[in-house]
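Title: Comparing notes on inverse folding

I've been comparing how different people in this forum approach sequence design from structure. To keep things fair, I'm posting one structure and asking everyone to reply with a full sequence. Here's the target:
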């Protein structure tokens, strides 16, 4: 699973010279979670995504450039299943 979060987290963490353990402690997450995010095996939960943005001071990052733009809605959930009619 390539989520774009893997590159985002690893690059920002390394730019700030944090170890995975240090980042995990700052986020109140596990080291295993940080490792899974960086390997693209999973993505952070929404509240952790916000913490990452604050920690990495990414307030100015546009949603088009930010990984959350690609990851907030899992693929397949963008479209209604066929056979459903829109409600007004």
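Reply #1:
Here's my take.
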């Amino acid at each position: 699973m390539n989520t774009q979060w893997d590159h985002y987290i690893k690059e920002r963490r390394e730019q700030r010279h944090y170890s995975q353990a240090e980042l995990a402690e700052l986020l109140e997450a596990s080291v295993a979670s940080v490792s899974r995010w960086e390997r693209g095996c999973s993505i952070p939960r929404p509240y952790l995504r916000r913490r990452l943005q604050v920690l990495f001071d990414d307030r100015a990052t546009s949603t088009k450039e930010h990984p959350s733009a690609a990851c907030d809605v899992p693929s397949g959930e963008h479209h209604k299943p066929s056979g459903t009619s829109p409600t007004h």
